[in-house]
Amino acid sequence: MDEVRPINGPAAAPGLASIFPPGLQAIYGECRRLYPDQANPLQVTAIVKYWLGGPDPLDYISMYRNVGCAAQDVQEHWHYISFGLSDLYGDNRVHEFTGQEGPSGFGFELTFRLKREVGETAPPTWPAELMQGLARYVFQSENTFCSGDHISWHSPLDNSESRIQHMLLTEDPQISPVHTPFGLVNFLQIVGVCTEELQAAQQWNGQGILELLRGVHVAGGPWLITDMRRGETMFDIDPHLQQERVDQGIETEGSNLSGVSAKCVWDDLSRPSEDEEDSRSICIGSQPRRLSEKDTEQIREALRKGLEFNTKAALPPINSQKQGHDRPQSRKDSLESESSAAIIPHELVRTRQLESVHLKFNQESGTLLPLCLRGRLLHGRHFTYKSINGDTAITFVSTGVEGAFATEEHPYAAHGPWLQILLTEEFVEQMLGDLSELNTREETKLPKEYSWPEKKLKISVLPDSVFDNPLQ
């Protein structure tokens, strides 16, 4: 539970700065530099701190009134700044202290800029809960965010009827990185976007879309201020120019989205071999062996340089009983198994060549197939779907991708629950034509099946309920 109150700390009483935690003091110092006339802003604070068993990882969220900058066409807005994703205390109560040279805690804090409505005298507090939700995801998954990342939220950010239902992340235009006694802290700004803008970021890249939004005043402007009352997308405002720039970017650069967390499974349709355990299907409801450490690292690399694709359902609240707060767990990357002790050593898992496979995706994952083919494989790259419901992973690779265990001679290969599919350029072009309806913004009637018998490949796009209720 949070409460709103004025800051009562070093920002208001510099003489007491020495008794304040150094990490907190360092960020307060940057806030004072930016807002010297607002030493005592309103602040949302967790009543029970996370390190005492509370549900909210962010200890504080400060809210400032920013007058904008008329010379740069920046409108007046509210500026929210979080405290807690970085190490505020340096005593291992939340984050493991790893020294001054690396990142502090997760290495970043979140900010948000919300357009100030006429007559508004105090900042709305809903952005604080949004930031807490994102912080819960970071603490739960231990995935960090980067500039250019996008977050698929599927709901108006303020629970209204707004079209602003998703987020992009970028560097805050005003707050400089802060060197604290516990490491470096960067500041990532949340930017609210419409569905069409999120899809464009997925198909091309987040940085490209952010740059386009900076050039459209009502869509964010130079400082990317979120306007929850915005009714038009940047494509509505300038339909030809914006879409042309996105299409050109995809054509020349491809997509930098190298992997997504998704609802997906795969089945081996090949005839079972005598080794039943080694040839079983990986399907919903089964208990496949866990990804090996080497496999995990290879897929992790596929996602590390890309953008995580998360739905609101994939941002679970922290289960405070899952891990204690007395001693923080060491950081892990996005695809590390929760039960690493169950991982089968890499050398004990045999790579299997499969004759025929059946891929199953929910609608949201299925709509990314054209992006996977056009934006990635046709540019000589790879694309990974990592199941949010288990260790299953599906990686599409083009010919020439290094490190693949799928080959042109054996295009379907599995290593435990990880499937690789190698597609030639000719087959990719054929699939793009057959899957063209997935590229539209209209809802596709489900279930939908696509089959290429000569390639022994089948793809099904199924309702979410199939994945959410595996026994049905």
Please state the overall shape, judged from the principal axes of the Cα atoms.
globular
Gap between N and C termini: 37 Å
Number of strands: 19
Sequence stretches where pLDDT stays below 50 over 5 or more residues = 9-18, 273-289, 304-348
Q: How can the largest sheet be summarized?
A: 9 strands, mixed
Helix content: 10-25%
By secondary-structure content and strand pairing, the structural class works out as: alpha+beta
User: How many structural domains?
Assistant: 2
Mean pLDDT: 82
Strand content: 15-25%
How many DSSP helices? 12
Region (Disordered): 270-296, 313-342
Domain Suppressor of fused-like: 54-230
GO biological process, one term: signal transduction
Subcellular location: Cytoplasm; Nucleus
Keywords:
Gyrase A, domain 2, six-stranded mixed β-sheet, 472 residues, alpha+beta, nine-stranded mixed β-sheet
Description:
By secondary structure, the chain is an alpha+beta fold. It folds into 2 domains: 22-253, no CATH class; 258-272 and 292-307 and 349-471, Sufu, C-terminal domain (Gyrase A, domain 2). It contains 12 helices and 19 strands. The strands form 3 sheets. Strands 1, 2, 3, 4, 5, 6, 7, 8 and 9 form a 9-stranded mixed beta sheet that branches. The protein has a 6-stranded mixed beta sheet with strand order 10-14-15-17-16-12, with helices on both faces. Strands 11-13-19-18 form a 4-stranded mixed beta sheet. A hairpin with a 2-residue loop joins strand 8 and strand 9. Helix 3 (195-203) crosses helix 4 (206-214). It is globular and about 70 Å long. Residues 9-18, 273-289 and 304-348 have low confidence and may be disordered.
